[in-house]
Amino acid sequence: MTDEFEIAQRNRVRLHADRGNYDREVIYQIIDEAICCHVAFVEGGQPFVIPINHARSADRLLLHGSPSGRLMERAQAGEPLCIAITLIDGLVLARSAFSHSVNYRSVVLFGRGYPLTSDDEKLQALEAITEHLVPGRWAAIRRPTASELKATAVVAMPIESASAKIRSGPPVDGKQDRELPIWAGVLPLQEQPMPPVADPLLDPGIPVPDHVRHYRRK
Amino acid sequence: MTDEFEIAQRNRVRLHADRGNYDREVIYQIIDEAICCHVAFVEGGQPFVIPINHARSADRLLLHGSPSGRLMERAQAGEPLCIAITLIDGLVLARSAFSHSVNYRSVVLFGRGYPLTSDDEKLQALEAITEHLVPGRWAAIRRPTASELKATAVVAMPIESASAKIRSGPPVDGKQDRELPIWAGVLPLQEQPMPPVADPLLDPGIPVPDHVRHYRRK
User: Fold this and answer.
1) Cα nearest neighbour of B170 on chain A
2) Interface contact B88-A48, CB threshold 8 A
3) Which CATH number covers residue A41?
4) Does B103 reside within a domain?
């Protein structure tokens, strides 16, 4: 196995090809940092795209949801999926309108899903998805019962093809614009946790655990 | 014109129907707050989904990009699009794994695009997209030249059909789980601006303008 995804028609970064990256590790880090992904599928020629939580297990993306949801229906049926994951790092404010941009790290993944059916596999996937959302959470909570497992569809999508696209750094204005008396630079953006809000029904004697108090995304 | 989008097959919120919302104002506020959207389209039966900046002008979504990009090609051709916009507001930490969730405000939009062709229309759309990203920016920057306008494709997509899906508030554990000695609550997340980073090429005498210094979403 190579460390890069093969460049083919569907995953080739066409615009700003210099921002394209096919490295498995780079792609996997973006997948692992993001809270949610956007899954696209086709139903009768009509595209759909739906946000959902995910996790990665080796070279597979894991998704879960109600078996009767539109997305899980299509994913369980093994139809072609495309999944985008996008992290916004900042606004790139140039001197010219044309050179405005965004600093981002994004991936686009292609594959087909298949349902996980055994309780063991489903449980492992739900653990991965929970730990992806909040590392340390799984050990603290009440695990799924048999009937909850039954009510949850879990799909694994082996990542057949993928690419990342990344922009970072300052604005790049044309030479003749650089002398303009206009402020240019980057406004970084970060998704940050605010102080936790206890469930109103919570026994006030139960303290905020470390995995919540010290939460940060990667 | 009613204030709600008609509920039909493709925009009906099937899962957690109580979280569904078809109100035009609710949907438009989510569109206006988000920095980017994810656009899905179909090419030879294969779904694609790509992140891109947007703006809203009345009942149309505006997109721009290079005319040779895959997305702009499909959008200019008037093929069916589906656009998802997702704001993550917090992680919902329940006592049971099964009741974990995310607080979010999301919309899914359906329509077909058409290219804007006159310089005036394109300029207005680029102003809207720039102002959507950073309110107050357009007045401060060097406007697009005729050749820059030519190099930029702009597509308007009238929003034919849409729905929002919103979850907020504390976790909802089953009755028998509420007595478990497990911390439960919400960890709010907010996308926040960090201190601006000037372009290394910037004349240090140029101060950070108010529209950057006081930047906030919405």
Assistant:
1) A199
2) no
3) 2.30.110.10
4) yes
Q: Flag if B69 and A215 touch (Cβ within 8 Å).
A: no
Q: Report chain B's mean pLDDT, rounded to a whole number.
A: 96
Give the integer Cα–Cα distance in Å for B123 and B137.
14
Residue B2: the pLDDT is 62
Would the CB atoms of B198 and A184 count as touching at under 8 Å? yes
Q: According to the model, what pLDDT value does residue B218 have? A: 75
State whether residue A116 sits within 8 Å of chain B by CB: no
Closest Cβ opposite residue A185 in set B38, B108, B198: B198
Q: State the pLDDT at residue A2.
A: 62
- Those of residues 125-154 in A touching chain B at CB distance below 8 A are 126, 130, 133-134, 137-138, 140-145, 148, 151-152
CB neighbour list of residue B151: distance below 8 Å, 6 or more residues apart:
A98, B66, B67
What whole-number distance in Å separates Cα of residue B211 and Cα of residue A15? 30
Give the residue carrying structure tokens 């292609």. Answer: A110
Tokens of A142: 């009440």
Q: Is the pLDDT of residue B1 over 60?
A: no
- The count of domains in chain B is 1
Domain that holds residue B23: 17-213
Instruction: List Cβ neighbours of A179 (8 Å cut-off, separation of 6 or more).
Output: none
Q: What is the pTM of this model?
A: 0.97
| Mean pLDDT (10-residue bins), chain A, 218 residues | 87 93 97 98 96 98 94 96 98 98 98 97 98 98 97 97 98 96 98 97 97 92
Q: Is residue B2 part of a domain?
A: no
